[in-house]
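Quick note —
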Amino acid sequence: MASTIQIRVDDELKIKSDKLFRELGTDTTTAIRIFLTQAVANNGFPFEIKKTMPNPYIAMSEDELLQKLKLSRNHAKQGKLRDADDVISDMREKYGI
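Predicted structure written out below.
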């Protein structure tokens, strides 16, 4: 016995996904069936779902770096300081490093 699932999606999403799945040699119905099969096999989503966090280690331009240094010096003059070990601990917790 087979069941029917009906879902509503934006027209644009339907058009784009139909095109993508055709290019991959399948159709949207089969792709959804594959997703459901893999979800059951994985006992959850078959891919990682997470909130993205900006990477604080992306290279900065020289101007950006100089602006951050200027701000840091101003904070230091105002007594806005934190222990480096506390900062590192906070970064490790926040970014999972």
